[in-house]
Amino acid sequence: MERSITSTVRSSPRLEHELLDYDGIQKLEDELGSSFYVLDVNKLKENYRKIDEAFRSRYKNLIIGYSYKTNYLPHLCKELSRLGAYAEVVSRLEYDLALKIGEDPTRIIFNGPLKNIDDIYFALSNKSILNIDSLYEIDFVKSFAARNPEIEVPIGLRVNFDISQNGVSELQEGYKYSRFGICVDNGNLEYALSELREQENIRIIGLHGHFSTKDRSIESYKIITQNLCKLAKENILDSLEYIDIGGGIYGELPKPYDLFVPTFDDYAETICGIMNKEFKDVDKKPFLILEPGVAMVANVFLFIAKVIESKKIRNDYFVLVDGSVHNVKPTLHKNNLPMRIIRRKHDCSRGKKTFNIVGYTCMEKDYLASEIKDRLPMEDDYIIFENVGAYTIVFNPPFIKERPGIVAMDNRKVVVARKKETIRQFFNEEIYVF
């Protein structure tokens, strides 16, 4: 449950600046402890608006489904639902969360490779958008349709096709093939269509084509969109209601990154251009479904950690903070995130040093940042890590210490969106046996 702590923040025309100065952070520490996340709700709204405007201005039949797995903080999911986003989920856990926060089940897109028969029945009974990922799900769908001959059973298929360019894989880690979806090239798609059409009340209404690419290039999305449109026109044009291109697009990168990435408008120009061209002669144009995750939330979270100690080992300096690499980089990548130091004392007399920022775990590889050149942070300073909104909340293990709290800022309103975890939640007696 959200809890207001507005009274701890002084009046100011710029709430973020006030909240993140030294005194503001200290007051939040009293409530949350010496490390916590900050959700910028205004930035979240801005991201949604930019994505929506970029695509809807070019193709009006648009559905944005927020990818829950990227960060399923209830406060965030509720806000995106209010803005108009559907819930894109890949497990029954995420599906049930969407229902718990009040989402209309007809606005839930159920994807993912693992669904049991109860999941399939539940989603179809609730009239959710269901994309089956594998052939084993066909029997579950046919069984539901046979038990409910009086109702129409709409189904989408996640398809698998080659998106390589000039023989070079576009997939993350250079994998030759994606492991997801129903394969087009070996005849499995043809088999799936035939099997599903045996049941008269099943309608195949959409194709889904999410691919995790290594560079999120416009060319990849061009290939994905073109293939989905081609397959849909060849196989399900009479019943087609949507083309789902998945997610994975770039969001806005922070300034320190010297990397050119496509903008939302760049992606939309290509994807929507193909949709308009392919369906220009179709009276009822299908919906375009987009499922952004990282692009929606990566830059809307900060992680604030208190400096515990700065020490020297041989010739190197190490700054220990009340945080872990898992809090800011759960995939353990080596890149430094944008960050800033909030100092207790503004002593400019100290020269710059090269230092590493390390965490509280007992792992040697617990580096939150490496080779930083600045004035050495001191005890009771704070370090703010930016751009930590993707996967950190959901992919953050309860390892050694409890999970930190989360505070959400929305104009003049400041609320606790997740309390700091205690031993009672860490070792939940309803599931642990003592």
Automatic annotation (TrEMBL):
Domain Orn/DAP/Arg decarboxylase 2 C-terminal: 37-389
Segments forming domain Orn/DAP/Arg decarboxylase 2 N-terminal: 47-298
Residue stretches in coiled coil: none
Cofactor(s) named in the record: pyridoxal 5'-phosphate
Alphabetical UniProt keywords: Pyridoxal phosphate
InterPro entries assigned to the protein according to its UniProt record, in alphabetical order: Ala_racemase/Decarboxylase_C, De-COase2_C, De-COase2_N, Orn/DAP/Arg_de-COase, PLP-binding_barrel
Family the entry assigns: Belongs to the Orn/Lys/Arg decarboxylase class-II family.
Protein's name according to its UniProt entry: Diaminopimelate decarboxylase
